[in-house]
Amino acid sequence: xxxxxxxxxxRPPRRQMxxxxxxxxxxxxxxxxxxxxxxTRMLHKKVKTAAGRKISSKLWIERQINDPYVRKAKEKxxxxxxxxxxxxxxxxxGLIKQGSLVVDLGCAPGGWVQIALKRGAxxxxxxxxxxxxxxxGADLIELDFMDETAPDRIKALLGAExxxxxxxxxxxxxxxxxTDHLKTVALVEAAAEFAMQxxxxxxxxxxxxxxxxxxxxxxxxxxxxFQKVQxxxxxxxRKGSPEIYxxxxxxxxxxx
Length: 256
Known about the structure:
Blueprint: E1 25-26, E2 29-30, H1 32-43, H2 55-66, H3 68-76, H4 83-93, E3 101-105, H5 111-118, E4 123-128, E5 138-142, H6 150-158, E6 164-167, H7 177-198, E7 204-209, H8 216-225, E8 226-232, E9 244-251
Parallel strand pairs: 3-4, 3-6, 4-5, 6-7
Antiparallel strand pairs: 1-2, 7-9, 8-9
């Protein structure tokens, strides 16, 4: 008697290959989302650790070369990625007007000065403790803004009340959190004091602040002197950065 061929049900089950189905794939095909993720991973550049280079330095360099705003700044000829921050703030609040006279506190390397001039400022007076390469249309002072002579030197160059005082001042960190906080608060207060003393009526003030915004005492003073005061964080400000910006619009008057 002839033996029957084995039924298909008696065949051993097919083994499923490991990794044949993964999240974001279908029948082995990569979805657009997976393609985008793969492309991002391929574009991300890593920096090799060189002898004597700290890990923190390696990570900073790696972050810089992979930052889209750093690339855009180079393409546009801006001196720093920070230029996009003042662009965004100007788009939202209308800080820079045609023919404006602008003061830039902490102006190095000059990105904010470039944007102010590009957007219609007639002249910019900038100050920084670091040297800044010349920019046509700008008067640049190499001096610590906290030097007692700094305000008078800025006013002498201005020759008139400015329309906008913008401050990107930041204290050098010591590693001691409370000390760094106090130094930052002092810079913000000094910038605000200068703005309230020098701005023309209707002028604006914008400054970088940290750790939840400006101190309540300073906010109260600004609200008494300006029509509108609020905090804002530009998209170009790194998500992990504690920085935000305080914007005070339309100076109404000065305290006695």
